[in-house]
Design a protein that fits this description.
Bound molecules: zinc ion
Structural class: alpha+beta
Number of strands: 2
Order of helices and strands: EEH
Helix content: 10-25%
Radius of gyration: 13 Å
Strand order of the largest sheet: 1-2
Number of helices: 1
Length: 45
């Protein structure tokens, strides 16, 4: 039996600006708890 990595284990949040769900990204690995918006554009509003 081969071990498969689950791609859908990534955590997700919902952007309060555009109301869209977004998934964890590598660039957020150290600040995920602080991430609120899906993109820089949403963050700046
Ligand atoms: Zn957004």
């Amino acid at each position: 039996m081969a071990k498969m990595k689950k791609k859908q284990d990534l955590p997700t949040k919902t952007c309060p600006r555009c109301r869209k769900p977004f998934a964890w990204r590598k660039k957020w690995e150290k600040v995920w708890d602080e991430v609120k918006y899906c993109s820089e554009r949403c963050r700046r509003g």
